[in-house]
Amino acid sequence: MSLIPEVKCRRCGERFSSLRSRCPNCGTRRVTQSSRTPSATPGTVSGTASYERAGANTRWQMIFGLILVVAVILAVIVMVSTSLNGTDVSIKPNKPVTAPSPTPNDAPVVEAVPTPTPTPPPTVEVLQIRYNDDEREEFTMSPGEVVPINAYVSPLTITDKVKWTSDDPDEEYFIITVDPDDGNKITVECLKYSAKGINFYAEIFGKKVACTIHFRQA
Fold first, then answer.
1. CA distance 56 to 52
2. pTM for the structure as a whole
3. CA distances from 94 to 89, 90, 218 (A)
């Protein structure tokens, strides 16, 4: 047995003489352990303020522990008595919350105005060009002569007036004058002679008739 104590390296575990300050194996410095005895804390020394506070804390801990034990015992007694009495403690399910239904919009509803159906034009059954209430398809005129002409339209419920046109739009040979009070009446005034006849027309609702004017020399 060696007279010089050995120490153990804290890093590699190699044992070496306590006279060395470093481990010969890894070179780690040896740590000398303190030989001082730790002093007593103030709380363990009788007569100090810390000692008295420690005693008071211990008493309060004991009181709190007793209260906790009593509470646990009471809870166990209540549970046992409840089970013996057959009391059914049931948890009622929560009533479902119904979301409020959305209120309809109180704004007035504007209805679209229906498009009126167009009225079909009436059907013209008869359309005639007349002179002295006689239907004419032609007649003869002299320069300077004025002839009254009217259009006959059937059915009589048709109140629209006829449209008058001619093959003499420049009014070189005759002039057509429409009665301002009755558009179905006109006067034809001959201006000058033409070797050939010229037509004029009455038209209403797609129906059209013609009448030819022949000219004689004055």
1. 6
2. 0.47
3. 15, 12, 117
Under a CB-based contact definition with an 8 Å cutoff, are residues 50 and 43 in contact? Answer: yes
Distances (CA, A) of 114 to 110, 111, 120, 121, 203: 12, 9, 18, 21, 33
Q: How far apart are CA 151 and CA 128, in angstroms?
A: 6
Distance CA 166, CA 152 (A): 18
Q: How far apart are CA 48 and CA 100, in angstroms?
A: 71
Residues linked to residue 212 through DSSP beta bridges, in sequence order: 138, 199
Q: Which residues touch 67 (CB under 8 Å, ≥6 apart)?
A: none
209-to-123, 152, 160, 163 alpha-carbon distances in Å: 15, 11, 16, 11
Burial grade of 3 (CB within 10 A; 0-12, 13-18, 19 or more): exposed
Question: Structure tokens of 98?
Answer: 């119904």
Instruction: For residue range 134-185, list pLDDT tens digits in order.
Output: 999 999 999 999 999 999 999 999 999 999 999 999 999 999 999 999 999 9
Residue linked to tokens 């009495």: 85
